[in-house]
What we know:
By secondary structure, this protein is α/β, with parallel strands linked by helices. Helices cover 34% and strands 28% of the residues.
Amino acid sequence: MSNIPTPHNECxxxxxxxxxxxxxxxxxxxxxxxxxxxxDVICFNSVRNMLGYTGKYNGKKxxxxxxxxxxxxxxxxxxxxxxxxxxxxxxxxxxxxSYSDRLNVYDTVLVTKAFxxxxxxxxxxxxxxxxxxxxxxxxxxxxxxxxxxxxxxKEAIIHSSDVFYSDNKTHWMFLKDEYQCExxxxxxxxxxxNAKALNKKAACLLTISDSFVSKIVTTSEERQKNFxxxxxxxxxxx
Length: 238
């Protein structure tokens, strides 16, 4: 019995999805990437508006698909891509808030580890580690691509949080001091856990969109424009 289509992906043909998937959180950003950078584009998924597109970049087949927000959401979509659609590599491309004066607004960050208080890896796979790691192979390829493009890529340990709003306004300082977390987002921990459990590869590129240190915040329009550096880097590597 076929496992596809899945409850969250209406695609009935595995061949429509590339082996490497770029995964922004926002489905509209997936649409933007497809329309701006890819040719011969097809839309293979619109379930719950979680848009997925496959096209060509410099002649190579690439898929872009939204993950939604948070670990439960990216956990579902990345698991189904890895387990049922034979995807080998997923590169998350998203935004993050900086915990450090070393990471400034619009900086491009390559995640080296994701720390989380989340129970995702423990409940799903019995993996009780507080840290999940990306593929060293993909990270090395991303660093080489950054060199080729002249992009100043900063490496960092990040915090994958289960919450966006919190009454504890100083918790980020504890995480920075205790676990060396320099930025926060909400998805990488689950993505890396899935990749490890399924023997696949995952990586994460982030653009700093706001800062807990400087209090600078970008608008959605500014993020859309300035995230292009991160997108070009992911596409070049793929």
